[in-house]
Amino acid sequence: MACGPVGCRAQAGGPGARPARLGAERGRHHRSPQQGRGAFRRRSGRRVRCLLGRGAGGRHGLSGEVFLQLRLPRRDRGQPAFRLRPGSLGQEGHHPAQARGQGPGRRHPQLHPQRRGARPRGRRPSLAPGRGDGRHQHGGGAQALQGRRVRKRARPGTGPLSLNEAAAPVLYSFRRCPYAMRARLALRAAGVTVALREVALRDKPAELLALSPKATVPVLRLADGRVLEQSLDIMRWALARHDPQGWLRADEDDEVAALIALNDGPFKQALDRYKYASRHPQRPAEAWRDEAVALLLAPLEARLAAHRCLLRDTPSLADMALLPFVRQFAGVDAAWFDGGPLPRLGDWLRRLTATPLFETVMTRFNPWRPGDPERLF
Ligand SMILES: N[C@@H](CCC(=O)N[C@@H](CS)C(=O)NCC(=O)O)C(=O)O
């Protein structure tokens, strides 16, 4: 068995701290006097960095993400961690619970998070970040981590994440974003529990930027380390796991894709201009509105003459992917929409937004900050 020593650190969100990219590194290891007792640095060989889970903040939790750093046998070097052969990460496997000291292999020395330096005497350094600048919080958490002991057992509600929480994908979302809404709709319909991190678009967390430099929401980080950066990918991923309401049908794929392309492309552009007409003074708001109607909404109205939903009588992926955008259009001038030329679309919108599913995905949350407990959604 070829596991090397283990490192545990707060994920700082800066360079070299990309939690979702599981990969091997090459480097040298040696001890350094500055690092204190039990400290560990790279000596040789390749290592894999495994995301274990998140600190829960407060007085016990780690501020950020916890990694194991493991030396791999030659045969498994270069493999993504989720494809490693059994035994490569230790005889008990590499379940996060072991590294938290909760699983059956909790005494396995090579799976224990490495302590970085002795804890200073006196008060235990707090890992709970302040409410200031995100980067500063990270720095504080990382420093504090160097001087803290990893506790073996946590009091309920204060310790590291439970097994289910640690396994939950992490969704960076913004309540009012129509792309994030469609992702939440699919995740919820599929019964996939995620750790939801509400994002303030003006103050995006470093963790999101490290995962997805394009910096849009939604972003879903899966438990195996993959990152889904497109709302449609998130929808399809969720529904491929479980689709109890039958949103996906293989024979509808082309039609669905065409409607979504129209929605996300020309319609969305006209919608943005209608919504923010003062920023596009080259035409009056009504002109952008009418363009949006002609491009997509009038064809949808025609479809609804044949079925209760866009492709059939029950909702499909197309209905749920377009719903948040049509809702946004209707909200720009509700009086016009209610009395205008789209009565069937208005009825469709009311039906689909009056569901418990839609109401649930519109729950309000405060923006997530590093160190906050995860909010399962
Ligand atoms: N193609 C992306 C588009 C996502 C997108 O544009 N989201 C907007 C919010 S509605 C965003 O994050 N914008 C970045 C910003 O405003 O800083 C998807 O389908 O997920």
UniProtKB/TrEMBL annotation:
Residue ranges for the region (Disordered) are 1-44, 77-162
PROSITE patterns attached here?
Answer: GLUTAREDOXIN_2, GST_CTER, GST_NTER
Domain spans labelled GST C-terminal: 249-374
Recorded GO CC terms? cytoplasm
Q: Where is the composition biased (Basic residues)?
A: 105-124
Q: Quote the biased-composition stretches of kind Low complexity, using this chain's numbering.
A: 9-22
Which positions fall inside the GST N-terminal domain? 167-246
The protein's matches in CDD domains, at most eight in alphabetical order, are given as: GST_C_5 (cd03196), GST_N_Omega_like (cd03060)
Q: What is this protein called?
A: Glutathione S-transferase
